[in-house]
Amino acid sequence: MSGVDAAGSERRSLGLLSVDETTRTRLLLAPLLLFDLLVFVVPMGYLVRVSLTERSTGGALVRGTWSVEGYRFLLDSSVVVGVFGFTMAFAVGTTLLAVAVGSLYAYAAWRGSRLTRTVLLAGVVMSMFTTLVVKLFAALVVFSPEGVLNDVLLAGGLVGEPLSLVNNEVGLVLGQLYVVVPYVVLSVYSTLTALDDSLVEAAADLGATPVRAAREVVLPHALPGMAVGGVIAFAWSAGAFTAPILLGSLGERTVAVEVNNLLQQQFDYPPAAALAVVLTLVVLVVLAVGLYGLRRYGGADGV
Amino acid sequence: MRHDRHRGGGVTGVVDLDGVRVEYDDVVAVEELSVAVRDGELFCLLGPSGCGKTTTLRTIAGFETPTAGRVALDGTPVTGRPPYERDCATVFQDWALFPNKSVLENVAFGPKMTGVSASERRERARERLATVEMSEYADTRPSALSGGQKQRVALARALAVDPDVLLLDEPLSNLDKRLRETMQLEIKRIQERLETPMLYVTHDQDEAFTLADRIGIMNDGRLVQVGAPGAVYDDPVNRFVESFLGSTNFVEGRVVESATGGGPEGRVDVEFPALDVVAGVPAARSLSAGDGVIASARPETIDLAPATEGAASTDGGTASRPGSESDGDDGVPDAVRLVGTVSEVVHRGSTVRQYVTVGDGVDLFVERPATRAANVAAGERVRLSWDASDCYYFGPDDRRVRV
Amino acid sequence: MLFAFLLAPIAVVAVTSFSTTGAVAVPPPGLSTRWYEALLASARWQRAALNSLIAAGGTTLLATVAGTAAALAVNGLDDRREAVVLGLTVLPLLVPGVVLGVSLLVFLGEFGLQQTYLAVVAAHSLWATPLAFSVVRASLSRFDPRLREAALDLGASRPRAFVEVVAPNVRSGLFAAALIAFVVSLQEFVMTLFVSGPDTRTVPVLAWNSLRGSVDPIVSVVSTLLVVTVVLVVAVGAVVAGLERFATDT
User: B82, A204: Cβ pair inside 8 Å?
Assistant: First the structure.
């Protein structure tokens, strides 16, 4: 036994990086933790601090003061309250639509032949990796009153006058779907790939039609993936910024847009920061509830 | 081997396959397969992995579509029908229990699909769980069960649809040996009680012999032989069946000029160069001088005795050609007698295997119940002998040479 | 149908980028490459392209290194600590981009660091790192730890074992992680909008600014080029790592 120990300690002293397990783990974790601390935790903390300073008329940040004026402004301003309500309704609606559409798409990819699957997945990955600005610009080109879709519909005599698909709620939801659907598709698809084919066969063998088998076996299995996808879709829709500006109208301001207005146009730091903090909290609470639900229903791998 | 089709008014099988062929891409998995499973029997499809037995079962269940041939269940043609329109039920190799449903819900799934009322299907599920002695686990999730318990639930779930035939796809291969043997008896007991016909796929010949009323042996996508276990073992149609049903000693030989000229007894003389022996073999006229022959001397037919006593010392060599003991008309003996050296003694629990090097460095082995094995050790010289007529002979086409 | 919904707009944009007129119309009245030429001649767009590459390069480096190191480390943690690290890493992905952008803007502003490349890379890495981390972790979890144990048993030091045995086996995972980090940086917009300045503005931000003014056909061209770039990167990733895994790991 002593011989083994000697050899072990020799090896340890020879290699410069051969340190014990705990130190090694800490060293490896250091870059990530340091990074998240400096770029995420501290700035977010600072944001909370800013939200608690006094408001000033000059548009500058009043350092060192403490006040809850920022939060009071949020409560008092009916505009902000309305914006919040609208944002939540929009986020929930978009999430439901995205989960429905994305799950169908993922199911189609999963059930499809090799080629179909490759094409469908490649489409999703491509869409996901296309910048927001391009995707939404493209949506604008297609859905605007002078856009391609209306041209086609008018030419085909399907509609008498152009459909208003942008600069309203429809455009907003449509645009946001482009942003979040790919994430739903991929999270549902990855849970589906973990589904054992023989379970579907067993259901068919016991007399279940394909529709029945999808409902009894595939759907329960895909639920965690749908929940994860839904959580992502909600988080991103609640924070939607680009789609509302490009495809919505002034009437469809989301919280993120309002934060930007307060900050970049009115230079009113405390309410902007307060709004951002509240938005983050709401999103995180919904996420926590969602993840808790996932764990309770079991079989979730997390994000 | 083949049954009359129901159209001919003869026996109707619960499962009838007629000239079935299944191809994947360019690979032919099953070819020209015709077989009928009779009502109430347990039929084993036995073969090495990749022989097409699982494909055959999946074709019956409806998961694969044959490129040619017909499938009928209980006299009704079902070729091309989807699995959910067939009255058969499968017990899958990995059991395929629905993880999100309780044991009871799993068993009640089949009746639920056919629209049986909630109370009735629960009752039926409980009944089936009782059959497999799993009643107390009704509300458990499958993930909490052991392998053997999952196996029982899978069996109950398949039985709950009252199938015309139960299809079992190597259902015990994921269990350890002892549990497997218990479950084999259990399945046989259930089968005998419910009289549900079963088609059981396995690669384990012991399992097939334990369970089956009849065995069908498959190789390379074809059904090679069908029959009762004993009949198949006693009468293998070709070399593949002989090698697959158990361990045996194959020795290559060649037909030399036949002394009897193919008389009424149909005797030919076969030379085994590796053993340096010529033996008189009862054989069909199909064999002629110069033909290659392979003899199978089963380990239980070879006698082994220590070489210390008797005239062994006169041989002086590794093999004997004991012309003095000839019992044929022509000086060629009907028995093979050899002297060799024990190379290894292997205790296999209830039996003992003794490997003996003879002749041209050929290893033969003898197997006996442990209580009746000759007491010899590695390195000792021993005599081996067997009657040529106790061997099985396979001709140039690997077919069995019949007398 | 859904596939068309997802991709048709992008195709339309690609078509309009070859239009002869300044108005975005389909079908275009004529085909030309004049907007491509205009793009090539534009110093603003060239600067933006360069900025995008700098940001993506920096992000790839930072995210891949930090993500890989952390993915290696979490195996050595107990379950509770692992959950904490996991949560902290993934959290930024779920915080609205506007909030992150604002917090970075305000915080970095304190040190005069807003509008620098550092700010842009830091912001992008906030999203790229968790993705790189989870891709590498997934790839490591497929790696049989006994191979590494065998290497250690045969006398390899830990770094040596990583280089000789672990890295070659998870190479495609590392590669995919780097690609994803690169693409995330290339396409990130909201945070960049807040933390970048006139000199560090990336392509999506400049495209946004151009769009805010009026419909600019150059945006079609830029969009098309961005999409082509991403397609190439994804294609390379798919070939190296396999599309299925690429899709499910992300």
Answer: yes
User: Domain A70-297 belongs to what topology?
Assistant: MetI-like fold (1.10.3720)
Please return the burial class of C101, using the count of CB atoms within 10 Å of its CB with bins 0-12, 13-18 and 19+: buried
List chains touching A (3+ CB pairs under 8 A). Answer: B, C
| CA proximity to B191, closest of B178, B202, B200, B201 | B200
* Spatial separation of the C-alpha atoms in residues B275 and B282, rounded to whole Å: 19
Question: Strands B165-169 and B198-202, how do they pair?
Answer: parallel
CB nearest B96 (choices: A202, A208, A213): A202
Domain boundaries, chain B: 6-244, 249-394
> Is a pLDDT exceeding 90 seen at residue B237?
yes
For residue C212, the distance in angstroms to the closest alpha carbon of chain A comes to 8
Query: Is the CB of A28 less than 8 angstroms away from the CB of C234?
Result: no
CATH code assigned to B249-394: 2.40.50.100
**Chain A residue numbers touching C106 (CB-CB < 8 A):** 43, 46-47, 50, 61, 269, 273
- In this structure, the dihedral spanned by the alpha carbons of residues A286, A288, A293 and A295, taken in order and rounded to 10 degrees, is 160
Structure tokens at B109: 């799934």
Chains A & B: contacts with CB separation below 8 Å: 68
DSSP class of residue B36 equals E
* A65 φψ region: left (φ > 0), alpha (ψ -120 to 50), beta (else): beta
A132-179 confidence digits (pLDDT tens):
888 888 877 777 776 777 777 777 777 777 777 677 777 888 888 888
At the second CATH level, the architecture of C43-249 is Orthogonal Bundle (1.10)
Nearest CB among C88, C129, C204 relative to A133 is that of C204
Query: Which residues, numbered 35 to 64 in chain B, qualify as contacts with chain A under a Cβ-Cβ cut-off of 8 Å?
Result: 61-63
What backbone torsions phi and psi does residue B393 show, to the nearest 5 degrees?
-120, 140
Both tokens assigned to B345: 């003694």
Question: What 3-state class would DSSP assign to B52?
Answer: coil
Nearest chain A residue (CA) to C75: A25
Quick check: A202 and B94 CB within 8 A? no
Interface pTM (ipTM) of the complex?
0.78
Chains A and B touch (3+ CB pairs under 8 A): yes
Among A14, A137, A268, pick the best mutation site for testing chain C contact (most C Cβ within 10 A).
Answer: A137
What is the CATH architecture assignment of B6-244?
A: 3-Layer(aba) Sandwich (3.40)
Domain spans, chain C? 43-249
Contact yes or no for C8 and A142 at CB 8 A: yes
Least confident of B44-53, B120-129, C224-233: C224-233
Residue type, C65: V
CA A221/CA A198 separation, integer angstroms: 13
Asked if pLDDT for residue C98 goes beyond 60, the answer is yes
Identify which of A204, A198, A220, A201 has the alpha carbon closest to the alpha carbon of residue B113.
Answer: A204
